[in-house]
Amino acid sequence: MPKNKTKPISTAIEDYLKAIWLVAQDASASTNDLALQLKISAPSVSSMLGKLREQNFVHYEPYRGVRLTEKGEREALRLLRRHRLIETFLLEHLGYDWGEVHEEAEKLEHAVSDTFTERLDTFLGHPSHDPHGDPIPTLKGKLPVTPNTPFAELSIGETLKIARLMSQDKDVLTYLKSLAIEPSKELQLVKREPVGGLVHVEIDGAETVLSKELAMLIRGEVIV
Amino acid sequence: MPKNKTKPISTAIEDYLKAIWLVAQDASASTNDLALQLKISAPSVSSMLGKLREQNFVHYEPYRGVRLTEKGEREALRLLRRHRLIETFLLEHLGYDWGEVHEEAEKLEHAVSDTFTERLDTFLGHPSHDPHGDPIPTLKGKLPVTPNTPFAELSIGETLKIARLMSQDKDVLTYLKSLAIEPSKELQLVKREPVGGLVHVEIDGAETVLSKELAMLIRGEVIV
DNA sequence: ACTTTATTTTAGTTATGCCTAAAAATAAGA
DNA sequence: TCTTATTTTTAGGCATAACTAAAATAAAGT
Description:
2 copies of one chain form a homodimer.
Chain A: H1 11-24, H2 31-38, H3 42-54, E1 58-60, E2 66-68, H4 70-93, H5 98-108, H6 114-123, E3 149-150, E4 159-165, H7 170-178, E5 186-192, E6 199-203, E7 206-210, H8 212-217, E8 218-223
Antiparallel strand pairs in A: 1-2, 3-8, 4-5, 4-8, 5-6, 6-7
Chain A binds a DNA duplex through residues 10, 12, 30-32, 40-48, 51, 62-63.
């Protein structure tokens, strides 16, 4: 009779898996990147990576970086699903604003069961994307494909149908909202300044200016 | 400059405070009672009680039992408020049944912020009691007074307006529900068997029999 | 190639919060 | 009261997951 001990997944492990996914999707992440992302010291990360490998959540050779195994990615996406459904609930039904949502979801995602998650999914009407426009992984761990062209890459005169805003910073999000820049809106590139990369844009008939950095965060689909 | 270290309240501490409150409200609880309630060994409880005393959550002299301080009770009631609001949400909006609710709420109550709790309270319409009929502590830590006479103590012919069912056991709750015994219903004591304490009751015009133990769990107000 | 710098790992601590086994205090029964 | 039984505490461990300091490895610069 083999041991076959399936250890429970701690919230620490969940956070590591999510961090690896965020930092390196399917590529490979460095110890330092993870330490930064998790706000934890590099030695702590290093030692945890050993444990994650032992439990087959990651491929990891010392000094050579980490990447998620299939098992690890499954868990990361399961957590991401919980996170984004919870965010959707907080924003749409409890009156949270951008600034408050993240921290709360970060705690709750570790506490809810699969049952809760699926009931919440039903309650919310099975959304495919959260209010940021980020895709919500399905129960089977598939990510709905999402138009992802950065606004910054358009040519003069082109228009982007906004799908998502790739930031979780409160100030960024509320600033964009104050300009009416939100998922499903259409944004046209009017002019690009020759130095500094500022872009002039038109939305809802009004014109404003965006920095290059901001323009990189706005993603969506180029339309005719 | 004094240290003045206000340590964060761990989920373990929250569970102990809740357990002490449940076991001994304002009276004093024994180490063993708590070990039973928390499903933790007595030595573990003993050592934790020392820590709780150091942080002024409890009054505790070795061998002489524990009771909550004002500070401890405030925390216990804050947790209880979260618990009961969460249960209400799960039962009324996510389609949970009696059996599933407890476990989920037990985890979530440690994860939600005060902000979440108050937004949820608003979402739910500021309920004073949860669907069990248990009173929900207010933000200020007051417990709404609740009619609390056990059905078992009525005299023949008297009727109880049910306010709460003092059990968190799935089977008990669903059994009572199958007999239409729920908060706000009226239950009349028809007859008491001379041996064994079985009671014959009438509810919604139908008659059934309840054990003495069950009759103790049904609480409410005697009406004319 | 070699030296400096940066990254990563090892070694050794710490704090929580649980456990079992054994000792001490209290409570109960003859 | 004195002995037995129960309850509670002390003693000593273990697992998780963080930390700092120092050593090892890898990367970059000249």
